[in-house]
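Each field is listed here:
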Amino acid sequence: MQAFDLLRMTYTLCYVSGLTLLMPVQLMKRPKRLRGRWLRERFGLVPHGPGRGDAGKRPLIWIHAVSVGEAMAARPLMERLRSRADVVVSTVTDTGQKVVRDFMTSGEACIYVPFDIPTAVGKTLSRLRPDMLVIMETELWPNLIRTVSAEGIPVLIANGRISDASFSGYARIRFFVRDMLGMVDSFCMQTERDAERIIALGAPEKRVRVTGNLKFDITPPADLPRWCKDLGRPVIVAGSTHEGEEEMILEAFKSIKGVFKEATLVVAPRHPERFPEVENLLREGGASFARRSEGGGCGKDVVLLDTIGELASVYGCADVCIIGGSLVPKGGHNLFEAASWAKPVVCGPYMENFPLAREFLSGGAAVEAAPGSIGEVLLELLSDAARAGEIGRRARELYFRNSGAVLKTVDEIERLLEKSGGTAL
């Protein structure tokens, strides 16, 4: 640990030197209305918290989410915690601040994370007095972790992930990272691969657990919408589609109709503002279609799902599901909603936004189709019920194996709070 502190001092000197050069530029990037708050909070002048361990107080949990992606992953965790704890979220970016403020409730606070220098971190701690620090997705700041740990405050990594680039970078300074990881009380990692990597970097194995991905944790709907039960069979549901995908899917659907005369396609554009655009596309293509919002569906070849919040339950009526955002380079969307219904899933080559896509594909729980061959892949699945059923079964197994990330993370937070003697949830 003595060696770590010497290295940390060197790191701090380099950090302060860089900060001196870059801070004026970073300050001027902010809108005028944000500059004063940004500067104050980054030097630790944040609002006062209710007080660590105060009798009768709810625990205060400080969640650090760097930017938009981490903030979105933190949302379901905040929603689960807020009935039992006070929550303060810190971000680095202004966009992260905006995302957090969109789903904050009264009594919750969003601050800028302090600069990673001991004085700024110490001042933040003395004012917030948190019962726990939760760091989203393995954002490792040596002075933040060291100062919090020295105060006896538990540190938990939530939704932890180690990308290829991060693993290579951390591995070069493993001698430094190892001691820092030893100050973290619990690692809740997204996948087995992430867990193996954090252990390889020096995290104590007994503190590492796989809890799944918070961002993709869902609660499956209880039942199908009534209108879905009257659709012609088989049913293909294309969920969260983007511009350019509807044309491909409609072209593929024509080949389906040549074999399955009663087939129905349900298409759900990702963004509501595109509902009129997709309606025009259907009309110009001569499709027999109806808008769901107008009570349509029965007797039509295509249903435009132009309602909000219904897609997850509509997947339950599908014989095959298509994951939008994967046929064009948008990164793909959540596989779990379809998988929770044990449905065979077809996705395109662009699934990098869903970390478990490779596991689904390699495990036979989903089928990848090139944009030009989606009709062929759909026909094969619809013509082979046994194969489609097996793919769906494997998809549901993977869903159950990776679901419950929020509850598992909250359980670990509660365990650490009890162990530390802080205010319990």
Remarks:
- The two ends are 32 Å apart (CA to CA).
- The first strand starts at residue 60 and ends at 64.
- Residues 57 and 176 are 37 Å apart (CA to CA).
